[in-house]
Amino acid sequence: MTRKPHRNGRGLFLGAMLGAVVGFLLGRGAGSPLFGALLGAVVGSAILYRVNPGPWKRD
């Protein structure tokens, strides 16, 4: 019986939002807030989609 990794869409959305905010703030200091926000959203959503567990009781 193989276990599927826990992944969910909420982690994807939350990572995109948090990553965009952090990327915007870091990008503003570097001179390009829009590029920082886009890059942060992609990286944040990829990380939280993979790490954030879904519901505890899954079948």
Task: Name the descriptors.
mainly alpha, 0% strand, elongated, 59 residues, 2 helices
Strand content: under 5%
Total strand segments? 0
* Helix fraction by DSSP (H/I, runs of at least 4): 55-70%
Q: Which structural class matches the secondary elements?
A: mainly alpha
Q: What assembly state would you assign to the polypeptide chains in this entry? A: single chain
Number of helices: 2
**Low-confidence spans: pLDDT under 50, at least 5 residues?**
none
Shape: elongated
Distance from N terminus to C terminus (CA atoms, Å) equals: 12 Å
Please compute the radius of gyration using only Cα atoms. Answer: 14 Å
Mean pLDDT: 80
State the major sheet. none
Could you give the order of the helices and strands? Answer: HH
Give a description of the structure.
With 59 residues, the protein is an all-alpha fold. The chain has helices spanning 9-30, 33-51. 69% of the residues lie in helices and 0% in strands. Helix 1 packs antiparallel against helix 2 (33-51).
